[in-house]
Amino acid sequence: MSEAERAFLATAATPSDTTDILKHQLATSPLIAYSALVTHHPKEFPSRGLLGSIVSASADVGDVVYSNIHAPSSTVVCGVQGSGKSHTVSCMLESALIQDPRIGELPNPLSALLFHLDTQDNGRPCEAAHISSQGCHDIDPTTLPKVIVFCSPSNATQRKKAYAGMPHVWVEPLYLPEAALTVNVMLAIMGCEQLGAMPLYMHTVLNIIRAIGVDHFTYREFKRRLDREQLDGKQKAMIKLRLDLLDGLVRPKSVPLDSHFIPGGLVIVDLTDPFVDASTAAVLFDAVLASFTRWNTNCGKVVVLDEAHKYLKSSDSERLKESICNIIRLQRHLGMRVIIATQEPTVVPATILDLASVIICHRFSSPAWCAHLAKHVSDPKADWYDEVMLLATGDAIVFSPAALVDASGYNLLGRHHLTIRVRPRLTQDGGMSALAAK
């Protein structure tokens, strides 16, 4: 080793540098216990949301756990219906959007985007929209988030009825500006994702998109060139089905989607509609997600995939899954927090489970789900299998290797897990089970 190399290496090994690296690692921990918080200075975690209390763990029982909202992270929440999954997601949204000392510290509210799809329109709103309504706790109305719901244009009347009477909630049909139809969106909508499975005439569509190019692509130019192609009647009919979908959603002069994203606001894309299947919903979710990702802002962002099992199963959801994976990989640079809520953890790609900062498991009884998660969670022991099947409603097992839960303030959760009881909702709880008698 030369003297120059030795001198250069020595500059990177100073105690102050090591201390700074440790502080950065701690400041980006996705979860912090109160006992660890007081060991450090609370100002090192300026944005933190109360998540719940520890009831059994490799930490002090009775301690309180916070979500570190200040740092980007990714969370997967799973569990059967009625186990508390949606309640947990709503609590996390409250902590990210509402400034109230009862649920933590939030100097600068985030901006949230949530995707929702129901296979049947039962007249119920998305549960997350209740975040704009007061519950049994007194809340300053000015702190409640503004909620904008974008719905399918063909089902706008019914969805407006579902959200009628909810304060601070506005429902509008989802229209995409022409600029939102990027090459990637067009490839997905036109079914040009899997070359081996495409009919021959779709190669014509692919060639047109390729000829226009990424930098100069417009929907008008695409349609103009497509009209010049010599296609038979059956081929034109198949392509027309996809173009009719686009024509119903595209408005050249519509307001850009990113104009609706604001700090402290929630945008819900609710595509509940008998005429919108899971594949179409996944493609449209990805188009809106692209606008949210590109939105240039100084505030933090959070994207929520609500009831993800309803659309991540579809054959056309690969691009949405890929987009989520890329966001998680780049979350520190994008300032993005990702929350995926699903009844079935098996629909979440293995890559996302491996990259997730936190995995929260509410009650479920499927051995197959346990076996699937066991390949991706940090705790190698199988003793949590029995525990997760016996969890009370609102309780959850939490895996988060980088969580800061030790009273010394420096030991991470690592290969262990926590069992927590999620805190009460601050806003209205819209997810209570409908029983035969009250």
Structure, explained:
This protein is α/β, with parallel strands linked by helices. It has a domain at 180-249. 34% of the residues lie in helices and 17% in strands. The chain is built from 15 helices and 14 strands. It has helices at residues 3-11, 15-27, 34-39, 85-97, 156-163, 183-189, 200-212, 219-227, 233-249, 278-294, 318-329, 331-334, 350-355, 367-374, 383-389; strands at 31-33, 48-57, 64-68, 74-78, 104-105, 111-116, 146-151, 169-173, 265-270, 301-305, 336-342, 358-361, 395-399, 418-422. Strands 1, 2, 3, 4, 5, 6, 7, 8, 9, 10, 11, 12, 13 and 14 form a 14-stranded mixed beta sheet that branches. Strand 2 (48-57) and strand 3 form a beta hairpin. Helix 7 packs across helix 8 (219-227) and helix 10 (278-294) runs parallel beside helix 11. The longest helix has 17 residues, at 233-249. It is globular. The protein starts with a helix and ends in a 16-residue tail after the last strand. The mean pLDDT is 87.
